[in-house]
Amino acid sequence: MSAPTLEEDLEGALDGPAAVDGVGVPGIRRARAWLTRAAEPGSVGFWRWVDDVGPVAAVRALRAGTAPEGARALVGARAVEDASLADLHRAERCGARLVLPEDDEWPVLPLHSLTLAVVGRDGDVEQADRTTALVPPVALWVRGTARLDEVVDRSVAVVGSRASTAYGEHVAGELGHELGERGWTVVSGGAYGVDVAAHRGALAAGAPTVAVLACGVDRAYPAAHSTVFSRIVDSGGLLVSEWPPGAAPHRHRFLVRNRIIAGLTRGTVVVEAAARSGAQATARRAQRLGKAVLVVPGPVTSAMSVGCHDLLRDEDVGARLVGNAAQVVEAVGGLGVDLADPPERPARAGDGLTDLARRVLDACPVRVGVSAERLAAVAGCDPLEAVRVLPGLEIAGLVQWTGTGWRLAPPPRRRRDG
């Protein structure tokens, strides 16, 4: 029995419900698969048109040449092509699937921010600047066994420069590991530098991590990260892409996919970013989506931290400085629940002293002992007051009686081993 044609699947989907037992009707699934290859994502007008008429009607109109002019211009010569069934089979062979907005697995809440960003925009179908537009995806190709909605429910994006420094890679790896230990999913782009360091940190903690790719989920780009991508899938993580299997990683696609990284997560952490960087662009998309923007500061002399510092100085972005995973979770976690502990401060012997005791201590000389009367004169207090606090200072190991007067206690000698 031959496989149904695209037109046959679309015809069968016209009168059916959007989903059956959580699985999209074959026609709807095939229609959205066709759209992921036919139209480059990121067009506000195209998404709104598909959302208005439905994916099945949109595909039929595009193939019949009756779609709005803007939609036909975006699809172009791809309208007469059909690789939807081959794409679905190719995905199945590599352990991937197409997740639709009609599926139970669709991350409704995280991606709702992208839907809200479209509200109020001009509904005309036109190809605007897709690299900066905030538009929901028509579908997502997902490789891995975990459910997409569950994996990204508590997730944070960790992004940064490809030409990262040792400092940036260390911080990204620590953040990935500590976030994973706290039960948070790290989402990044799988690129060189900060991205892969964050993924590896999460993997070292045995936690799931998500790589949002600018190519098909069956392709490893960069090729040097093929082992990392395999580990992500094998460790309960996911590879996610708007483009079908086999799609090439064209340069513009990296800029387009950044909105998915920002949209899927509760906040974006920028570890290192140059003056012009994709990481900085991702952070600004997160801000426009109402997500938290978190920034790790770097040396003021480092070109790889210029973008980070620009974000911190931009009042419109409202970026928050963070230095560890606890501070990240505090910013994106539950209100009053995921609070970061205050930084530890080393205790000193003089902590907790009264003002009088501190003045008497400051008046004590280092070598020669002096009388209480002399200490009182220097400290500006009555001699009897100085006499009352000196025993307590001696017990604390801060002052020492020499037999003729009081002086500061010498520091304890370091024990020599051997």
UniProtKB/TrEMBL annotation:
Superkingdom: Bacteria
Signal peptide boundaries: none
InterPro entries, A to Z: DprA (IPR003488), DrpA_SLOG (IPR057666)
Residue ranges of domain Smf/DprA SLOG in the record: 135-332
SUPFAM superfamilies in the cross-refs: MCP/YpsA-like
GO BP terms, alphabetized: DNA-mediated transformation
Any Pfam family the entry gives: DNA_processg_A
Protein family according to the UniProt entry: Belongs to the DprA/Smf family.
Protein name: DNA processing protein
